[in-house]
Design a protein that fits this description.
2 copies of one chain form a homodimer. The first copy, chain A, is of the alpha/beta class. Helix content of chain A is 39%, strand content 15%. In chain A, the strands form 3 sheets. In chain A, strands 2-1-3-4-5-11 form a 6-stranded parallel β-sheet, with helices on both faces. The first copy, chain A, has a 4-stranded parallel β-sheet with strand order 7-6-8-9, sandwiched between helices. Chain A has a two-stranded antiparallel ribbon with strand order 10-12. Chain B binds a DNA duplex through helix 2 and helix 4.
Chain lengths: 351, 351
DNA sequence: GGCCGGACGTTATACGTAACACCAGGCGGC
DNA sequence: GCCGCCTGGTGTTACGTATAACGTCCGGCC
């Protein structure tokens, strides 16, 4: 049979526009069979291939610029060694940091991570992961609404949930932040400064992680013998939060002396609202955030907030998914949070 | 190193009733051959399969919950219909918005987009895309340093560069923002307000998009008969920018009346620095940014800045890559920028 | 000398899909 | 009566990889 193959291992041919070399090309160049190439490059050759042959294979692979065809490998193995990370929004710094943590652990185990930013949870059940049409082995989903969860479950893939209700019976393994405790810390911090009229600027987002925040604040106020904080909903957006703050500060009755915000972005808006009314922060009104975004130390005054270990939750999430893929159980995790007191909160004004 | 976890996808999954159905299972259920299933589900059956048979196939596929094996499809087609978007950092809102634009166009063409956030451009040449080990058809790379570009080029994949030097002979197609013009607009804005002593807070990042900013500012000042602005380098970081601003404002000689910043993040730091010195913005010193991040309207006063059409550059980038993949040329693109004057700049103080 | 077994490789196969080449029957034209 | 053509499919193959099953040489031991 005629062999039009001209390249007899003469020299490197990187990215010359031709087709990519396969393991068979490497085999030909090294004078061995394709199986041997696979063994050597897959590091499974101890005691089955001589040192000299292995070296020859590696040299040939290097010369040709061989890179394995990942689609073929995935097909053969029935696994892609890739995880999908579903997040509600990428523009929120928190999720970018979660990704970084997940990628770190994945990398250490030879796994990849692919991101799918889903504006509204996830898409229709038929094709939950719209534009991320990549073959994946498992899913890590962060801060998903309940109906979105159902759509993901349909995929039949191993699943780990981040920042989601851990008490669903038969639900997927969860990795959570101690969000409730974090907001208790904030509330106690404000109470400790003498504040008795606290307005709560909450995000109008129907996810577990935001729902528990309100419960925690209310419970902590009740424990101190105070009524629930007036709660103002707002989109997770500076302008909406500004309006909510203005509404809270101009509502009938005695003016709140503190604005407890569920997110740093809301806190930034709250600061603008307070200033628009001529109030000074923190002398006239204290403002607290939640997240410790870069934004929070860019503001003036710097924001009292709660630091979220975003990278850590990403690491734990990936670790849990790897456990699932290996057939091991993934016990639930809850990570502690720490209050970061800064300049935007101070003692309540007298009067 | 966990070895025996390779059979992750092949184990029987309780919810799905065994292993995932293949096109052959669908064929069996519908009483046709696998080839017919492929034709029907691939929408290539017009005039080759009867309406009735096609319907039967679709019903069977739906009943079984069939989803094509993407690895097998990619192997067969030699293409993955997936693009890789390489960005320097995800925590910067700009890149998240670029992604959104790229994903929009990709989706409309049945393509997927996978993100690879590369802390330092890209990784070593051997495996440029570290944790994003997914089979891809092409690359869109944004704001890459020169050496990183070389590593990407080695991949031999179609490549589109965003925010990169368009004048490299034989270089890849580029999609750019008119960054130089944007900074000229800012400079003229400040000159028009009477500022004659402008300090330039620049990012210490060796990429084209930041290099041209300094050139543009210097050229525009020279055109007005002014010496180059004292330039202070800073990491792309609030604290570093704060220090740079303090240094600029306390340097020997007459104090600058304006701080021209290459990025909104730098501007946020500059504001903090100015305030730390007891200066009011904009009465004592004007501050301008660049990007129009959400941050810029969260600051107080709101930042004069330049709006970047991030989604648009993502859309154009993906469009260019699709052209390349179709064998068509991708002419260079340059998108115009618009100045957004807000409250952080005002007339230069007299004296 | 025959036989065993380690060292060193090779041959063959399957993964699931898409598409090319073929084929059976019916029908109209000449 | 034969050809050509249209309709509605089917058999088969190849994509590139990983690995199970199978050889082959050769030194050593009873």
């Amino acid at each position: 049979m005629p062999e039009p193959d001209t390249d007899a291992g003469s020299g490197p041919r990187p990215g010359a526009g031709g087709t990519r070399p396969t393991s068979r090309d490497v085999a030909r160049a090294a004078g061995v069979s394709q199986a041997t190439v696979s063994l050597v490059l897959g590091d499974k050759w101890r005691g089955r291939v001589s040192e000299r042959t292995a070296r020859a294979v590696r040299v040939a692979a290097g010369d040709l610029g061989y890179r394995p065809n990942l689609a073929a490998r995935s097909l053969r193995l029935g696994a892609t060694r890739t995880a999908l990370l579903v997040v509600p929004a990428l523009t929120h710094e928190y999720f970018a940091r979660v990704y970084a943590g997940a990628a770190e652990v994945a990398d250490a185990h030879g796994f990849g991570v692919v991101l799918y930013p889903s504006p509204a949870g996830v898409g229709p059940a038929r094709d939950p992961f719209g534009s991320a049409r990549t073959a994946i082995d498992g899913v890590i989903a962060s801060s998903m609404a309940a109906d979105a969860l159902a759509a993901i479950g349909d995929g039949g893939l191993p699943l780990v949930m981040l920042d989601s209700d851990p008490d669903v019976p038969g639900g997927p393994p969860t990795v959570n932040l101690a969000v409730a405790d974090g907001l208790r810390q904030v509330t106690r911090h404000l109470l400790g400064l003498g504040h008795r009229r606290v307005a709560h600027i909450a995000a109008d987002v129907d996810t577990w992680t935001f729902r528990v925040r309100t419960e925690a604040v209310t419970a902590e106020l009740a424990a101190a013998g105070l009524p629930p904080a007036p709660r103002r909903l707002s989109a997770l957006d500076v302008t909406a939060a500004r309006d909510a703050a203005v509404a809270a500060l101009t509502a009938p009755g005695p003016r709140p002396t503190a604005l407890l915000c569920d997110d740093d972005i809301l806190a930034a808006g709250a600061c603008k609202g307070a200033r628009a009314l001529g109030l000074r922060i923190p002398q006239d009104v204290s403002v607290s955030g939640f997240d410790d975004l870069a934004l929070s130390s860019a503001l003036d005054p710097e924001l009292t907030t709660v630091r979220l270990p975003a990278e850590s939750i990403g690491r734990h999430g990936m670790t849990a998914l790897l456990a699932l893929l290996a057939g091991r159980p993934a016990p639930p995790v809850e990570l502690p949070l720490t209050l970061v007191p800064r300049a935007s909160t101070a003692s309540a004004p007298r009067g």
